[in-house]
Amino acid sequence: MTDGGNTDDATGSDPDWDFFVSYTAVDREWAEWISWQLEADGYRVLVQAWDFVPGSNWQIRMQQGVQHARHTLAVLSGAYLTSIYGHAEWQAAHAADPHGFKRKLLPVRVEDCPRPGLLGAVVSIDLFHHDADKAGRHLLDHVRHTLTGRAKPTTPPNFPTHRPNPPTHEPAFPANEPAPTDTSPDPHDQQSTEDLLAHQRRTLGPDHTHTLATANLLRSPLGNLGEHAAARTLFEDTLTRQRATLGPDHTNTLTTAMALGWTLGNLGEHAAARTLFEDTLTRQRATLGPDHTNTLTTAMALGWTLGNLGEHAAARTLFEDTLTRQRATLGPDHTNTLTTAMALGWTLDRLGKRHLGR
């Protein structure tokens, strides 16, 4: 089996990985299983679970994976879609190959989750509803299609024959094949939250704190179902009411503004997201301080948005400042710090500067 992560080169040349596996912590088992299948088939893989070992530099590993692996394999699940770090990694891969000619981003769905925004345009490999053997073959077959750019069969197709008449009776469902399990968000959860929100609006009023809290709670099922337009409408209404009742600098108001900014980004409205993030960041710096976790998270979001708008120099300045503050407050090995370091490395790469962040 290929030792995928061991690609250190004393000559300083770029590492040579076929795949960088991007995943969130709850999907570690899936990430390891996928990585094992790939390495057993001869591919070189970088995966955090195996390659970020004691003594290695996490920042360099993360940057190398995103920048230099031929493909970023994103292990898609509902949890991954809500992860700011997963979001940063797949967006970096997409930005490096926005038209998909090199198939840099390879989404692999491990549950029946939506593919919102830009992810919706990228063809995925779906492993759910397969047993282990079928999933392994399905994964490797489609990985080969990704690398070659075609799904041409290895044997000639059969000559088409006249289709037989359809059966006169409805075929029975195969008894030995279980019905697929629906792992998508439960619409009843969304409905119950919507019912509660309607009740609170009638009894407490649309501007009551409890009503606004329920409106924010509804964002999760809407986002998980890929209903970003509906989530946007809800966030905009909630934000307007919070600004009027709590004030524009209240923590809840700023949290809603952040959520609206991410939703606008998922809808591809990066200019509007930028305006919202800039205002939120200014207010958080004044009320929470420049080193507060929420402030630094907003700075990260603004940096990615600037990158999506092609303003890499401005993104670099923001990432450098954020990274310095995170190293001082969170430590150099914190997940947030490493994510910012990765984002800075990607931005420097966009600017044609191949050295790592300071």
UniProtKB/TrEMBL annotation:
SMART domains: TIR
Pfam annotation, one family: TPR_10
InterPro entries associated with the record: NLR-like, TIR_dom, Toll_tir_struct_dom_sf, TPR-like_helical_dom_sf
Domain TIR: 15-136
Top-level division of the source organism's lineage: Bacteria
Residue segments, region Disordered: 147-194
GO process annotations (BP): signal transduction
Bias-annotated ranges (Pro residues): 154-169
Protein name: Tetratricopeptide TPR_4
